[in-house]
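Recap slide: Xaa-Pro dipeptidase, sequence and predicted structure.
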Amino acid sequence: RVIKTDMELEVLRYTNKISSEAHKEVMKAVKAGMKEYEMESLFQHYCYARGGMRHTSYTCICGSGENSSVLHYGHAGAPNDKTIEDGDLCLFDMGGEYYCYGSDITCTFPANGKFTPDQRAIYEAVLKSSRAVMKAVQPGVAWPDMHRLADRVHLEELTKIGILKGNVDDMVKVHLGAIFMPHGLGHLLGIDVHDVGGYPEGVERIDLPGLRSLRTARSLEQGMVLTIEPGIYFIDHLLDQALRDPAQSCFINNDVLQRFRGFGGV
């Protein structure tokens, strides 16, 4: 199940192609004043009408503004019901399902069509880490090393922006990257959106911040399908935790960080 056949790969390409097109339709339609669930509805309609996808792979996550920093937002307790406002970032994580095979795509964009300088800086930092992982990923690579690579790029870029200061190697030692990316880099994808087989016998979970959230710690093999979804989020309780820890707070420019309170995430 972890190693996909050529036919399975074709179905997965199809599900991701239609889901990508649906995301683009959502981007074209979104306007301030609309509800997040309207974007969810449009995504589902496109996937079904154009792709024959009756179901989504998981509950759609349509986080705007501060909601974009809530991991797995969109559940019954927070059902994509905020009104999208001018100036909001929209983080939409949605994927259609076809013949039981899933997709998982996240897009972040400004609701009004124009990034602020701060929004652009964070977006480009995440884009850079995503591209770095895509360039490095190949059979034989250990997946935790790809997570570490994304973390390092984030720390380097956050230092350039001015949120962080100091030596990136020292930041890595105190796991500062997990404050901004508390989840794992990505996961196996197939019949389940978080597909099985991540921790077979002999593969141990790494009990360190960020890395412990990885859904696999395997070395990659040809035929595996994984998502690559780094992110930078400004989550108040994690930021406050870091500021209380002298080992981490020494790297944080709190004056600059205040600009990003309520920013959400990418």
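Strands lie at 55-56, 61-64, 89-94, 96-97, 105-110.
Residues 6-29 form the longest helix (24 residues).
(End of recap.)
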